[in-house]
Design a protein that fits this description.
This protein is an alpha/beta fold. Helices cover about 30% and strands about 25% of the residues. It has 2 domains: about 15-215, Alpha-beta prism (UDP-n-acetylglucosamine1-carboxyvinyl-transferase, Chain); about 220-410, Enolpyruvate transferase domain (UDP-n-acetylglucosamine1-carboxyvinyl-transferase, Chain, Alpha-beta prism), CATH 3.65.10. It is built from 12 helices and 22 strands. α3 runs parallel beside α5 (about 155-165) and α7 (about 220-230) runs parallel beside α11. The longest helix is centred in the N-terminal third of the chain and has 13 residues, at about 15-25. Bound molecules: shikimate-3-phosphate.
């Protein structure tokens, strides 16, 4: 059934994390508005407060009083949040002192060696579980800049090294195989840092001071993607999505949906806190299959589960390749989507680095395992709405990791 209405997604998760971290390092009081109120961002606030940064809430505004981070008295718990764990390691590496970090049963299975190795080569010392898993301990101090080529395009690794580089002696230079989200670079610049971005490379010199700023966090395109796909794949629908971050390193999914035949207009484009922000109008259509691979993968990595749903609703075979990173997210998202869809009767082939989805899928109602992954849960809920078919999720609460209020917001559309 066609849907109509207007929705404002919650504040962007990546930008909210960074606002509290950079605010914590900056000179003065940073004001953060429209921060995402979710479990992941709560983990980051807890981690930053553990370093003796004061954070106060006044209505819906946070005041972050920046200071030199000091040794935490207890173990930092990053919960489910890879961004918290990896970025905070970049800060701890340059802090004079010792800290220990852990996380939940998902996070302790996610790779940390990708940040440990380069941070060690900058001069920090780490102890971690076998193969570099959490819990880990870091002893930070005087660092020196490095030139580092990342094996995978990862904004979390890049950001950890930039945060360490801020405190290091000399220049830190990072090369990435393809362009990942650049919120850290933009926010560092917004806080007054001198940072250089070229094709595939970013660098900064150590010893720079950040100045406190006022930040209004724009809406999260990754959360917007759920209603956007629902409307895009449902002919006759028209929805408006307001105040979304339209940073080009995040909007790959819009380009894919347009290739599939959706009509999307970007309106009221403006700039806020160094980020491009705007409104989207989505008009539904009968979608055609698409191929998704290569350089665009990092620009839509978190939207792949919901693009798999779009593939199920589209005509033809949608192929996804070069997305092996999905196997080390909150859960193995390639396997979780393949298992869930197969259990509902869809024809899906699971590959090492992606999936083939044959659409339009003929589905039967059923119960799906989410593996307590927020994006898997929301993707199957949208599939159920778009097909007007009962899909029971084994865990609905996990959506609170990134989109509290998701189910009510979707009810308001249809
Ligand atoms: C994020 C980067 C991405 C993304 C994650 C958030 C960030 O992870 O999947 O949800 O805020 O920097 P990787 O850096 O591991 O690709």
């Amino acid at each position: 059934m066609a849907i109509h209405g207007e929705i404002t997604p919650p504040g962007d998760k990546s930008i909210s994390h960074r606002a509290f971290m950079l605010g914590g390092l900056a000179r003065g009081t940073t004001v953060v508005r429209n921060a995402l109120e979710s479990e992941d961002v709560r983990s980051t606030r807890g981690a930053v407060q553990a370093l003796s940064v004061e954070i106060h809430k006044d209505g819906d505004t946070y005041l972050v009083r920046g200071s030199t981070p000091s040794e935490p008295l207890t173990v930092i718990d990053a919960g489910n949040s890879g961004t918290t764990a990896r970025l905070i390691c970049g800060i701890l590496a340059g802090m004079d002192g010792f800290a220990a970090i852990t996380g939940d049963s998902s996070l302790v299975r996610r790779p940390m060696a990708r940040i440990i190795r380069p941070l060690e080569s900058m001069g920090a010392r780490f102890m971690a579980r076998k193969h570099g898993y959490l819990p880990l301990a870091v002893s930070g101090g005087l660092l020196h800049g490095i030139s580092h080529t990342m094996e995978v395009a990862s904004a979390q690794v890049k950001s950890a090294l930039l945060l360490a580089g801020l405190r290091a002696k000399g220049e830190t230079r990072i090369m990435e195989p393809s362009r990942s989200r650049d919120h850290t670079e933009r926010m560092l610049r917004f806080f007054g840092a001198d940072i250089h971005q070229g094709p595939g490379v970013v660098s900064l010199s150590g010893g720079q001071e950040l100045e406190a700023r006022d930040i209004v966090v724009p809406g999260d395109p990754s959360s917007a993607a759920f209603p956007v796909v629902w409307a895009a794949a449902t002919p006759g629908s028209e929805i408006m999505v307001r105040d979304v971050c339209l940073n080009p390193t995040r909007t790959g999914f819009l380009e894919v949906l347009e290739r599939m035949g959706a009509k999307i207009s970007r309106e009221n484009i403006r700039e806020a806190a160094g980020e491009r922000v705007g409104d989207l109008v989505i008009r539904g259509a009968r979608l055609q299959a698409a191929s998704i691979a290569g350089e665009e993968i990092p620009r839509l990595i978190d939207e792949i589960p919901i693009l798999v749903v779009a593939g199920c609703l589209a005509e033809g075979t949608t192929t996804i390749r070069d997305a092996g990173e999905l196997r080390v997210k909150e859960t193995d998202r390639i396997s979780a989507m393949a298992k869930g869809l197969s259990s509902l009767g869809a024809r899906v082939e699971e590959l090492d680095d992606g999936l083939d989805i044959h659409g339009p899928a003929r589905l039967s109602p059923g119960r799906v395992r989410t593996f307590s992954d927020h994006r898997i849960a929301m993707s199957f809920h949208i599939l159920s709405k778009a097909c007007a078919m009962e899909i029971t999720l084994d865990d609905r609460d996990c959506v609170g990791i990134s989109y509290p209020g998701f189910f009510n917001a979707m009810e308001s559309l249809g």
